[in-house]
Automatic annotation (TrEMBL):
Keywords: Ribonucleoprotein, Ribosomal protein. Residues 292-341 have a biased composition (Basic and acidic residues). Residues 342-358 have a biased composition (Acidic residues). SUPFAM superfamilies: Ribosomal protein L1 (SSF56808). Residues 1-27, 284-389 are annotated as: Disordered. GO terms for cellular component: ribosome. It comes from Rhodotorula toruloides (Yeast). This is BY PROTMAP: gi|472585733|gb|EMS23284.1| ribosomal protein L1 superfamily protein [Rhodosporidium toruloides NP11] gi|647400578|emb|CDR46175.1| RHTO0S12e01244g1_1 [Rhodosporidium toruloides].
Length: 389
């Protein structure tokens, strides 16, 4: 044993441990690099004009609303609406995080709910010990399943917070419990890593960012701020930060802005103000397939054609084996024998009926006369019997 230990220690000091092997299937996906703001064909002057006009319109509407209603001014959210040339093939349930210089919400005024793994009390204590005061509520997975099982309870929970965060370890389970109500309201829980050493910084980054929810439609909306928290310059800075992410994260876009048809700015209740429209010469560029997509499509069609030919060959072989199994010594199958036998029996019955009709036609006239004479004599005998009686 000592010798073995000596050899092991010697080998460990002379050779470095082998590098960890990581298969390609689990290697992290390399995200495309962000283009520079100067390379994006969206005019900053046009964006500034649209934002100023939008804020003036909101101010007029709120003044009129303040005269007519008791509530007065209300917060208006500002969105960037992206029109696509080609709709994404599938919906992305995980929102795309986009960092912005000015947070789109104030967590000390807008409630934030965090879904965590059980036990719930452990994470409540962790948040309290980390001096995190911007999380208004912590909900464990077991509590979510039991107390928020009904539709009414889920709807009430949805109204309680403006932003929902979720521990990335239970993201799938929480999504199953919540259902599509959160997705329809554009409030999908944002995944965060609770195991990080600086938990407060991780949660602050999640709250300070905006998010893009990719659906199967041709229109996407991204929140860039609110009229109460942000000025026109703040909204413009957030817009400039969002545009590079859109150019690189839009689905089915082989190049920057190749799949983008238009960009508009709007609030929750206002009309849309355009800031970008694809040129007429590029209106239908990007709607077709790229070279890789064409190659993939051709391979799929070829594979489908080969599968169809293979099924046809298998069907022919199956029919041939079926005939071979039913074949007899003289080379004819059972079904063919039965059909020929039925045909022969039918021909024989037809021939017998024809022969009988021919014999009746050839019956001698004397025999017919004898039968006719016998008929009256039989009638006379019957009348004589009646007279005697």
């Amino acid at each position: 044993m000592a010798a073995i230990a000596t050899v092991t220690s010697t080998s460990s000091t002379s050779q470095a441990p082998p590098p960890l092997w990581k298969p390609a299937s689990v290697a992290p996906r390399q995200l495309p690099s962000l283009p520079a703001r100067a390379d994006i064909p969206v005019s900053s002057a046009q964006c500034e004009k649209a934002l100023n006009a939008l804020l003036k319109h909101v101010e007029k509407v709120q003044e009129k609303r303040g005269e007519e209603e008791l509530l007065g001014e209300q917060e208006e959210k500002v969105f960037l609406v992206v029109g696509l040339k080609q709709a994404p093939k599938r919906e992305t349930h995980k929102p795309v995080r986009i960092p912005v210089p000015h947070p789109v919400m104030n967590p000390r005024e807008s409630p934030v709910t965090l879904f965590v793994k059980d036990p719930q009390r452990e994470y409540k204590d962790l948040i309290a010990s980390s001096n995190i005061g911007f999380i208004s509520r912590v909900v464990g997975l077991d509590k979510l399943r039991k107390k928020h099982k009904t539709y009414e309870a889920k709807r009430q929970l949805l109204k309680e917070a403006d932003l929902f965060l979720v521990d990335d370890r239970v993201m799938v389970d929480v999504g199953k419990c919540l259902g599509k109500m959160w997705r329809d309201a554009k409030k999908q829980p944002i995944p965060v890593t609770i195991q990080r050493k600086d938990l407060k910084a991780e949660l602050e980054r999640a709250i300070a960012s905006t998010y893009m929810n990719v659906t199967t439609g041709t229109a996407l909306s991204i929140k860039i701020g609110t009229t109460d928290l942000h000025s026109a310059s703040d909204l413009l800075a957030n817009l400039d930060a969002v545009l590079p992410y859109i150019a690189s994260r839009i689905p089915q876009a082989p190049a920057s802005f190749s799949n983008i048809q238009s960009l508009h700015l709007k609030t929750s209740t206002s009309t849309s103000l355009p800031i970008y429209n694809a040129p007429l010469s590029e209106r239908f560029e990007g709607t077709g397939l790229t070279a890789e997509q064409e190659k993939e499509r051709a391979e799929k069609l070829e594979k489908k054609k080969a599968d169809k030919e293979e099924r046809r060959k298998r069907e022919e072989e199956r029919e041939a084996r079926k005939k071979e199994r039913s074949a007899t010594k003289d080379g004819q199958g059972r079904f063919e024998k039965k059909r020929e036998r039925d045909e022969e029996e039918g021909e024989e019955s037809v021939e017998a009926a024809a022969e009988e009709q021919a014999l009746e036609a050839k019956e001698p006239e004397a025999k017919k006369a004898k039968k006719a004479a016998a008929a009256p004599s039989a009638g006379k005998k019957a009348s004589a019997k009646k007279a005697k009686a």
